[in-house]
Design brief:
With 239 residues, this protein is mostly beta strands. It folds into two domains: 115 residues, Hotdog Thioesterase (Thiol Ester Dehydrase, Chain A), CATH 3.10.129.10; 86 residues, Thiol Ester Dehydrase, Chain A (Roll). Helix content is 14%, strand content 37%. The chain is built from three helices and ten strands. Strands 1-3-4-5-2-7-10-9-8-6 form a ten-stranded antiparallel sheet. Strand 3 and strand 4 form a beta hairpin. Helix 1 packs antiparallel against helix 3. The radius of gyration is 18 Å and the shape is globular.
Length: 239
């Protein structure tokens, strides 16, 4: 299990920042067994995440130091679940997360079996049970717009970085009320968006769930759902 310390900036910790930190932790952990993005690139391969789920136990506070623990489970059907636990300085759980990752050929964009390459990617089983990420929660969408993918959106795989979708979503969906907390966030990445692609965006909010999706050339590209904390009647509440 790999662990790193992150200080929450005083400007706050939005979902974009969170998913960048999860990606960085995954990259640093993979580099320890020579399976970083740079290592895979030597074989014409790349890491791709296809699904994420984050369950918040309490809000993240500005300025606090948090501990990110991450470990990858053994590959199965060409996919591996990478798990995360974030705790505070007292060891109290802040959130758990899981992402489904696969290795893809850079040219064909098809999944490969890491066992077919000289890669040593260990899988780890721990006492912490984290469920497999589920599909995003869908609600009716009532807003639409187009977004052209910018150079600043791209990652080393030359497609839109997974965390950038959250930046886009949070710029469009209904803003949380002051003090409101995230409870459950899910994302599914279905097809890549490249420089110059125009993403057809749709979003809407029903009760305490916001849903955001995009299509590129009529193909589903991604889906994101954000569930906020609610009371017994389903109304949004603060913490």
């Amino acid at each position: 299990m790999y662990e790193k310390v992150v200080r929450v900036p005083h400007s706050g910790w939005d979902l974009t920042f969170l998913f960048h930190e999860l990606q960085d932790a995954a990259g640093e952990a993979s580099a320890l067994y020579h399976a970083s993005s740079d290592d895979l690139a030597k074989f014409g391969l790349m890491w791709v995440v296809v699904r994420y789920e984050v369950l918040f136990e309490r809000p993240v506070l500005t300025g606090e130091d948090l501990f990110i623990q991450t470990w990858a489970m053994p590959f199965r059907h060409k996919m591996s679940q990478r798990n995360y636990r974030i705790t505070d300085q007292e060891g109290a759980l802040v959130l758990t997360a899981a992402g489904i990752w696969t290795i893809v050929d850079r040219e064909s964009r098809k999944m490969v079996d890491p066992a077919d390459y000289p890669l040593q990617i260990p899988g780890e089983v721990t006492d912490y049970a984290i469920g497999r990420p589920a599909n995003p929660e869908k609600v009716n969408t009532v807003h639409q717009m187009e977004y052209p993918v910018q150079p600043s959106d791209l990652d080393t795989n030359v497609h839109m970085n997974n965390a950038r979708y959250f930046k886009l979503a949070e710029s469009c969906i209904e803003k949380p009320i002051p003090g409101e907390r995230y409870r459950l966030v899910r994302a599914a990445y279905l097809n890549e968006a490249k420089l110059g692609d125009r993403i057809e965006l749709s979003w809407g909010t029903e009760g305490n769930v916001s849903y955001f999706s995009g299509r590129v050339n009529r193909l589903a590209c991604f889906e994101i759902s954000i569930r906020y904390e609610s009371d017994s009647k389903g109304n949004r509440v603060d913490f």
